[in-house]
Amino acid sequence: MKSPREEYLHQLELFMEMSTKKSTHLFLLLIMLTLLCYQVQPKAQDDSSYTEIPVGVILDMRSWVGKTVHSCITIALFEFYKVNDHYQTRIVVHNRDSRGETLHALRTALDLLEQTKVQAIIGSDSTAEAKFHAVLGDEARIPILSLSPAPSSHNHPYFLQIAHDETTQFKGIAAMAESFGWKDLIVVCEDNDNGRDMATIMANAVGEKSISVTYRSLISTSASNELVQEELQKLSTMQTKVFVLHTSPSLASYLLLNAKDLGMMDEGYKWIITSKTMDFLNILDGEVMESMQGVVGFRSYIPQSADLHKFTWKWRKEYGGKNINSYGIWAHDAVSALAMAVEKQVLKSNLKNLETTGSNQRDTTLLNQMLRISFQGLGGVFQFRNERITTHVLEIINVIGKGEKRVGFWTTDAAFIKKLGQPNSYSNDVLKAIIWPGGITSDSMRLRSKNLRIVVPAHSRSRRLFQVYNDARNNSTIVSGFCADVFLAAFAALGQDVAFDFIPIRNNTKVGLIDYNDLIDEVYSGEFDAAIGDISITANRSLYVDFTWPYTDLGFATISRNADASMWIFMEPLSSNLWLVSACFFILLALVIWILEHRTNQEFQGSRGQQVGTTIWFAFSTLVYAHKIAGLATNFDLLRTYETWYERVPGTEIVIPFHVPVPERTANLVTMVVTPKWQELQSNLSRFVVIVWLFVVLVLTSSYTATLSSLLTIQQIQLASNRNLIGYSRSFQLGGIRNFTPGTRLESYPTFEAYADDLSRGSKKGGVDAIIEEIPYVKAFLAEYPSGYSMTISEATTNGFGFAFARGSPWAPEISRQIARLRVDGTLNKLENKWFNQESRDSVPTTKILCLKELRGLFVISGVSMAVAVFLFMLYLVHEKLYFSYTMLAGGKLAFILRLLVRRTGNAGE
Predict the structure, then answer these.
(1) Would strands 655-659 and 644-648 be described as parallel, antiparallel, or unpaired?
(2) Strand partners, 297
(3) 703-706 — which CB contacts under 8 Å span 24+ positions?
(4) Which intervals hold domain Ionotropic glutamate receptor C-terminal (predicted)?
(5) What's the pLDDT score for residue 654?
(6) CA 442 to CA 272: how far, in whole Å?
């Protein structure tokens, strides 16, 4: 077995063979490294206040990652020592720019070790640089903190990986492929050593789930546009449409843009992108994001916290950036851990001993301190395990529009969950809805096909709801009825290959006395996977099983025998206050018309009794006038449509048509239809008042007619007997029934036959007036006894029927979604019609009587018109009296003057 030095020299030789630079330069570097292995000595700096510890940082400062990591390290050290100003040590960072070149990064590392005497090095995310730094760290015996996510060998104890291992997500990808039922997929990686290694590791991970990688596409980062399109064209012709993309962000952007142009981001394709690209999603431009619509990605999870928010705000303020990615957070936590380790090292050993004891003991001590560090950093718990930071959670996101939507998490111990901290909740067993390319939505992951053991009640109160019988030919249990059909329809909509084994429970109960809690106990104990039947959802049962959404109506209903109509039903359309106000307004109208017409209209004159009779008769006869006016309008419209006039032949029953000009027919019709009595009013004020009142009467009579028709058609269900005897089923819990009147008596009944018998007899003959029951049972009863009985729905105090599954079962949320779909597409309604032999039997509609509050505007209008008319009449009357008095006075003076003149003239003549 080779020593670390021999392995290092061997890797340098391989690298020199691949390099295009002059061999003399590489030879000089090799000599420098060899001398360095024996000559590197620590150098402490004396300071009266604290000891400075040099640490090297090698980053590609031309990249966004390099700039972000450098700024995060700077802020982290400043904030760390601001809080821990009592520390005896201070880390002094020596930055070096690798320029993105592996050879230059190695040269700068050698310079840091030889010239600066650094005690640790923080490296970039480059996989090639990480390999050489790992060997260099072993030779120099200093910790190398690498941001490379590629897995490292355990043969390099000084190489500490502070980035999350990118191979952890491969198990999550394999689990996702298995859950969705994918049998094969295509892996796209970079054409280099790391890409080929990752393709192999991914193939092994999905292979454990019996999923095959049909093709490994390796594309060089320097490939031309023609080569990329040629490779994608080849992929598009393959039968497999599921792609896993594991490349750098730059190559991924290039691939996705071309894939969209080739139609590989349309319906039918599935794209899963690893954290190697998704960790940099926030720096991708808008065009690339548009090409990624529908892709699903695994991304390193950074938990939100107050410290993270504070750090991000400070970073944005000082450097003007928008978002910090995971690499900046990891670098922040790593340099903080290094500062803690250096301080602990100094506390255990004084600086003078470190200078004279030798580098081996010193460096081993620093490494050991780093491995013992454990604290809550910005990225979560910072702790090394096997020389790398442990990865527990990955975020799964779905790219939609200009942003992203989190659909769940992947954890190494709890698989897929929707929310962290709730691993035992059934709602977390699958991801949220995913929108794939082309806008295709997947509500949840596909569930594994299996056989389900389902317990069912041996007896049911209604065969229409649920029925169990044995198939002797196949020796199997068959279920039927409304509940069974809903269950089978919901599973059929899933498209899953699931076999059911229905097992009836026999607890020595009779029909109508089933203890459904026994079914729940069987599921809770784990003996069965589910329980179906006419099982009501209750709060207590929900503590032991997971129910689906209800597939029946909620609440109770009342069954009662249809009652006979009351002899006073014609009074019910209007409320008592409306009857009273209407009568008062009729009398008021009569009074107003008499005031307006008494002086000039002979119809309103005569004896006092005759005046009162005529006035009252006129007011109440407006009820007839209103309808005749309505008939006039209707017939007038008919005259505009038809040109035929009908006339009865005198002395016969024969009616013959003949043609009459429309104007003449209209005039004749007006003459025939309109009663002349109200036209005999002589005052215009009277006519104005009557016209307004006729409108009020027309509205009142029309509303009355409609309400009365409704009351005669739909009989409200009431408990007619004063004894208030109400029935209920024996398996029914009365805790939800409320609002019983005082003195109400209850009687339990086991079967529908008993319901019908006692309802038909009524309470006066030893039966009951009504029966309270859950709505599904009421519908089943009315299907068997469709005539003579009605239903009215009470409060929704029950939760309806549901299917019970074991706690944590993924089937419960899946079947709930399918029940919602069956309700929307009308399947549930069709099944109700099938089993209950009728269209939807909802509650009997109640008729709302007319109240004064609703029609008070009509009376206000009529009252105002009467007041205005009387007021104008009084003004006219006062004016007339004044004018008459004036005339009389003026006439008297004139006569006196004439007589005086005549007298004087006569005297003169004499």
Answers:
(1) antiparallel
(2) 273, 397
(3) 703/573, 703/850, 703/855, 704/573, 704/574, 704/850
(4) 453-838
(5) 44
(6) 14
Please identify which residue in the block is written with the tokens 């009215």: 792
- According to the 3-state scheme, what is the secondary structure of 740-799? CCCCCEEEEECCHHHHHHHHHHCHHHCCCCEEEEEHHHHHHHHHHCCCCEEEEECCCCCC
Residue with tokens 């919602």: 820
Is 731 exposed, middle or buried (CB count within 10 Å of its CB: 0-12, 13-18, 19+)? middle
Strands 184-190 and 212-219, sheet pairing:
parallel
Contacts 24+ apart (CB under 8 A), 860-866: 861/692, 861/696, 862/585, 862/589, 862/692, 862/693, 862/696, 863/585, 863/588, 865/688, 865/689, 865/692, 865/693, 866/588, 866/589, 866/592, 866/689
pLDDT in tens, 81-134: 999 888 888 999 999 998 888 888 888 888 888 888 999 999 888 888 888 888
The span from the CA of 409 to the CA of 412, in Å, is 10
- Nearest to 339, CA basis, from 110, 159, 164, 88: 88
| Length of the chain counted residue by residue | 910
Scanning 373-474, the segments in alpha helix (DSSP H) are: none
Q: Which residues contact 461 (CB under 8 A, 6 or more apart)?
A: 511, 512, 514, 534, 729, 731, 751, 752, 777, 780
**How far apart, in whole angstroms, are the C-alpha atoms of residue 819 and residue 763?**
41
Q: What CA–CA distance (Å, rounded) separates 726 from 735? A: 15
- What band does 397 get if pLDDT is binned at 50, 70 and 90? very high
How high is the pLDDT of residue 245?
Answer: 95
Residues 6 or more apart from 230 whose CB is under 8 A from it?
none
Query: Cα–Cα distance between 863 and 865 in angstroms, integer?
Result: 5
